[in-house]
Design a protein that fits this description.
This protein is mainly alpha-helical. The protein folds into 2 domains: about 50 residues, Homeodomain-like (Arc Repressor Mutant, subunit A, Orthogonal Bundle); about 130 residues, Tetracycline Repressor, domain 2, CATH 1.10.357. About 75% of the residues lie in helices and about 0% in strands. The chain contains 10 helices and no strands. Helix 1 crosses helix 6, helix 4 crosses helix 6 and helix 5 packs parallel to helix 9. The longest helix has 25 residues. The chain is elongated and about 65 Å long. The termini are far apart.
Length: about 190
């Protein structure tokens, strides 16, 4: 059973997320985060032994939030086409709604990512295999599946978040959703 994090820990994680995303992990200090969170020095060290542990905890929380929302969105779609299309839209929307978290996830993985990914991808593969079994989508290995499904939308989002490119327009997102479905559906 997961425990609810203390309000102080949540404030520290929220403050650190903004600082790390805006200033970068090298320029951010624990004192910056402490000041933004309105906590004592002792509170920082009670929850995190050092800046690296704080940075890892922020990325872990961002990854967990993304993965849970992604899987829930996918599992809300009973048919393959609507699920494939919805996830392309979801990915761009989640990054737009959570730009600081998205930037940190683009910069690297938390130390527990392998374990988190194992559980996450098991959920995704379960949904995918069901639809592949019934001939709606191609039975692809995970790396090719990811590249075809989310590679283009991730690249569009990466440019937008890191290169000051304009936010993707709905027509661009719909074009990527169309392309993903065309690439992943089982040929007739």
């Amino acid at each position: 059973m997961a425990t609810t994090p203390s309000p102080t820990r949540v404030r520290l994680l929220d403050s650190a997320l903004q600082r790390f995303a805006n200033d970068g992990p090298l320029a951010t200090t624990l004192d910056d985060v402490r000041g933004d969170a309105g906590t004592s020095v002792g509170a920082v060290y009670h929850h995190f032994p050092d800046k690296e542990a704080l940075y890892d905890a922020v990325r872990e929380r961002a990854l967990a939030d993304f993965q849970e929302a992604f899987a829930a969105e996918l599992e809300a779609h009973a048919d393959a086409e609507s699920g494939v299309r919805a996830i392309v839209v979801f990915q761009v929307r989640w990054c737009a709604d959570n730009p600081a978290a998205a930037k940190l996830l683009l910069s690297g993985r938390p130390s527990r990512a392998e374990l988190m990914n194992r559980e996450f991808f098991a959920r995704i593969r379960g949904w995918w295999r069901l639809h592949a079994h019934y001939g709606a989508v191609r039975n692809l290995d995970l790396l090719v599946l990811y590249a075809l499904w989310l590679g283009p939308s991730m690249e569009l989002t990466r440019h937008w978040l890191t290169d000051d490119a304009p936010a993707p327009r709905p027509s661009q997102i719909n074009t990527l959703a169309d392309a993903a479905w065309a690439a992943l559906k089982e040929p007739e």
